[in-house]
Amino acid sequence: MQDLFAQDAIYRGCDSRDQSRQADGASLNMVLHILLRVIAQTLQANNTGAYNSNNAALHFGVIAFIHRFGSSLNEHVHFYVCAVDGVFEEAPSDGGSDAAYQTSQPRIVVHLAIGIAGEVVAQAQASMRRRILRAYVGRG
After folding, report:
1. Could you point out which of 51, 70, 86, 105 has its C-alpha 20 to 30 Å from the C-alpha of 11?
2. CA angle 63–65–70, rounded 5-degree value
3. Residue 78: beta bridge partners?
4. 59-82: pLDDT as tens digits
5. 108-112 and 62-69 strand pairing
């Protein structure tokens, strides 16, 4: 999974030559949101045995932040992203006798992502690159 969303290649390919955009918080947030959307879509498309075919019902877990400097305190803008290798879904109730317990405590199931190999990685990275570049062109 760590290879799938290697932000360095994506960010470097999009705008590392444009130093003014590295400091622009709105641009960084835009890039991070695109990155996270592609991660979510890739995980939703490569999960095992979801009860619901609606991707809106499949959620992913991620911690991400923008890091603005390197080890020598030089400007080095990059992202740290830690994503779960799968999606979460609320399982349908089994119709048991304790209905009050079921409504207050939904059962959450994790569906592991499968098939995330070289081709899927390349598609996700190409999608990120296209979307980020299109967003920058739209911003002017």
Report:
1. 86
2. 135
3. 67
4. 888 899 888 887 788 888 888 999
5. unpaired
- Taking alpha carbons only, the member of 31, 63, 44 closest to residue 116 is 44
**Could you give the CA distance from residue 58 to residue 51 in angstroms, rounded to a whole number?**
9
Decide if 1 is inside a domain. no
Q: Where are the alpha helices (DSSP H) in 1-140?
A: 7-15, 19-22, 25-45, 99-104, 118-139
Answer yes or no: are the C-beta atoms of 111 and 91 closer than 8 Å: no
The model's pTM is 0.68
Half-sphere exposure of 84 (CA within 13 A, CB side): 14
As a whole number of angstroms, the distance between CA 126 and CA 119 comes to: 11
Q: Residue 24 class from Cβ within 10 Å (0-12 exposed, 13-18 middle, 19+ buried)?
A: middle
Domain span at residue 15? 7-139
Count of domains in the chain?
1
